[in-house]
């Protein structure tokens, strides 16, 4: 069985292109997931609060524009393991045929995504096993399996990566006093924009429009509110004719401890033509220089 949540939209959700920003979709997913958990386990909000995100995978398929009516999000359980379970999502609209009102509506999907979740024992602050009672409830919301998880995210070669000092804001922190899983998407976006700004300034070209095609995030350890910044290390790992892939690590400024790893696929985009384009040659050459050295 799938759960349907209708998510309200806000003006502040939009990016420079007038589309819902890639970061905001993670917020939509969290709202749908919270509504699913409330529906699954009414009167047990403490259980919904004691669940942490282990991994997010988000595939962006089509731009979503602002409108007054909510956008539909279906979510369902795909896998239940000993100490975790996976929730899958589709953000979509049902679109009718203006020329044939009697024709069945077609689904326009904007995002497909999945989240691996782990229940936590709040008394000791550690993951715990999924109980038999929880497993029974999860089974009622189980539908078709999700796709296989994306390949393991590689480590960043910090000698060839861009470093962005990351201050944590008070508003970034959730009920656990940790940075909320959605905010990591914002940190990653900020870091790669700073990286690209430095690169285009170095080669003397105008920064092209870039849209996000895929974001995968592994959450390794919590980020907490503190005065000292963290570091976000971002490195280009693939450069195609019209796209590129970057990997990032959010790490403790004083050591090597990694809080999260991410891989983001990006597409160079012509706004007027509405299609992918090749980046300027000088920019592409500079990005290629960041690629990991082959052993």
UniProtKB/TrEMBL annotation:
InterPro entries recorded: 4-hydroxybenzoyl-CoA_TE, HotDog_dom_sf
One Pfam family named in its UniProt record: 4HBT_2
UniProt protein name: Acyl-CoA thioesterase
Taxonomic source organism: Nocardioides marinquilinus
């Amino acid at each position: 069985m799938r759960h349907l949540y209708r998510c309200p939209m806000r003006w502040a959700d939009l990016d420079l292109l007038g589309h819902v920003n890639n970061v905001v979709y993670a917020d939509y997913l969290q709202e749908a997931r919270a509504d699913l958990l409330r529906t699954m386990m009414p009167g047990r909000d403490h259980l919904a609060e004691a669940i942490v995100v282990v991994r997010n995978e988000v595939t962006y398929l089509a731009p979503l524009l602002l409108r007054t009516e909510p956008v539909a999000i279906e979510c369902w359980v795909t896998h239940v393991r000993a100490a975790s379970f996976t929730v899958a999502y589709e953000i979509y609209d049902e679109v009718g045929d203006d020329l044939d009102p009697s024709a069945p509506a077609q689904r326009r999907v904007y995002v497909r995504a999945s989240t691996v979740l782990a229940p936590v024992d709040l008394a000791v602050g550690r993951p715990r096993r999924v109980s038999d009672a929880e497993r029974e409830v999860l089974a009622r919301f189980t539908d078709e399996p999700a796709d296989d998880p994306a390949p393991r995210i590689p480590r960043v070669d910090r000698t060839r990566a861009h470093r962005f000092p990351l201050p944590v804001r008070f508003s970034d922190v959730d009920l656990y006093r940790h940075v909320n899983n959605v905010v990591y998407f914002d940190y990653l976006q900020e870091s790669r924009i700073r990286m690209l700004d430095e690169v285009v300034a170095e080669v003397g070209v105008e920064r092209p429009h870039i849209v996000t095609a895929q974001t995968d995030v592994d959450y390794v350890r919590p980020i907490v509110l503190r005065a000292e910044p963290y570091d976000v290390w971002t490195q280009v790992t693939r450069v195609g004719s019209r796209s590129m892939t970057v990997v990032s690590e959010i790490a403790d400024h004083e050591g090597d401890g990694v809080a999260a790893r991410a891989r983001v696929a990006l597409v160079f985009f012509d706004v007027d033509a509405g299609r992918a384009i090749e980046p300027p040659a000088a920019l592409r050459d500079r990005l290629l220089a960041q690629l990991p050295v082959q052993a």
